[in-house]
Amino acid sequence: MKEQIKQMIEAADTIIIHRHERPDPDALGSQFGLQLTLQHQFPSKTVLTVGEMATSLSFMGELDQVDDELYKEALVVILDTANQARIDGKVAMTGKDVIKIDHHPDEDPYAPVQLVDTTMSSTSELLVHLLNEWGYEIPTSAAIQFYAGIVGDTGRFQFRGTTKRTFEVAAQLIDAGIDTDWLYRNMYETELAALHLQGYVLQHIQLTDQGVGYVVLTQDTLKQFGATVEQASLLVNSFAGLKGMKCWALFLETDTEVRVRIRSKGPVINEVAKEFNGGGHPMASGATIGQLSEVERVIRRLDEVAANFQF
């Protein structure tokens, strides 16, 4: 499969790279990193990145505007996207050829050609391994993108998906001459409104008897602190260290839905996420519910999962 993907990339004149909606550092880092590497390796090819940019991650790069007609003769590479419904830009599936490269559980094999490796910490790490195998040089501009993706999906190398291979790849990227000071400053600088909201989150954590922590942020609360849903979503790990907590959820009310970010220290929570229009990793998932009255249903299911887990 890896050799087939390499051949498809080398045969294509136009490559359009997609990833999931509401991008995180790994989605953007893998997207920009692959683009910059391919542009470096094949200067004559047209390599484009598309999708909506997350305001907090705009420092990572600028996305392209692509006419739908271009897809008819293009190779589309979809990164870090487990489910077809989450692709940012549904026109991606109209490409002449479509490839999926991902590290999430492959529960929706939507692409004709796929490379999925759930042992990787991130799609960024997976791509670095792949590019190394192909003998492609990763320029400094791409290395910092891949590093950002790995840092984001490993929680600065804290999460259990971090392996020896992850550190080896990180070392390779640092050796490429990246400016990690610049990266961390941009990734973790916080607006005053977000800091105030973090204080609210820490004061309003609820913890069930089974060890499920959760915080609900309504639209009114977000308006009170002048914070966006995007800013608020970054606070999901702000109370991760709470003693006695096995898993936790952050509920974010928008105009049309309630987004749920779920994390775990042990209980497998992606099956719960799937029950609520979501999915993801066993320890980090997302879901969507229609209204705040459904919060209790999510917590009950997380309670059931947490009850069967012992540290």
TrEMBL record:
It holds the Pfam family DHH. GO terms for molecular function: 3'(2'),5'-bisphosphate nucleotidase activity. Keywords: Hydrolase. Its EC number is 3.1.3.7. Signal peptide: none annotated. Residues 219-307 form the DHHA1 domain. InterPro entries: DDH_dom, DHH_sf, DHHA1_dom, Oligoribo/pAp-PDE_c-di-AMP_PDE. Residues 15-150 form the DDH domain. This is Bifunctional oligoribonuclease/PAP phosphatase NrnA.
